[in-house]
Amino acid sequence: MASRHIDLSAACWRKSSYSNTDGGVCVEVADGVAGFVPVRDTKDRRRPAVIVAAAAWTPFVRAVKAGRLGG
Description:
- The protein is of the alpha+beta class.
- It is built from 1 helix and 4 strands; from the N terminus they run E-E-E-E-H.
């Protein structure tokens, strides 16, 4: 599978509405990246973002809400 680099240097990040308020589980998402939804850890922004295909984003969020991805 070919690797593709997505430049996120100009991405506009926002804290996800699904982040909790006690500072534990916090994620940010970047809008405006055509075809993808980048997600990163609010507490450690130096780590690489997870890149989710836009078509998979809604099913992913549904699975998280339903507790099907918990660890």
